[in-house]
Write a structure and sequence with these properties.
The chain is α+β, with helices and mostly antiparallel strands. The protein has two domains: 39 residues; 55 residues, no CATH class. It contains one helix and three strands. The protein is elongated and about 80 Å long. The mean pLDDT is 84.
Amino acid sequence: MLRRMTLFSLATLVALTGIAITYVFMRGSLENIPQEWSSPKVATCHPTRQTRSGVQKDLWMSNDDGRLHHRMISPRSILTAYPKGENFELVEEMQG
């Protein structure tokens, strides 16, 4: 029993030491990875389109008596994202 516990402790110590050494050597190389890879700084100039089906929109407007509700239903629509600097302008054209 004592021998089994000693071997288990030694194996755990070797594994943790290996992990610590790997971390020390990998830490420097991970800091050298360029940040440009994860997030591109230049957005594309072209709009992006998405075709959607079964679209339903709810429109709420304030009134003196309360709120007015209007529901728009369309069998399909085209959602277009136009890049505007660092933001996007979304335009949805409901068809049908």
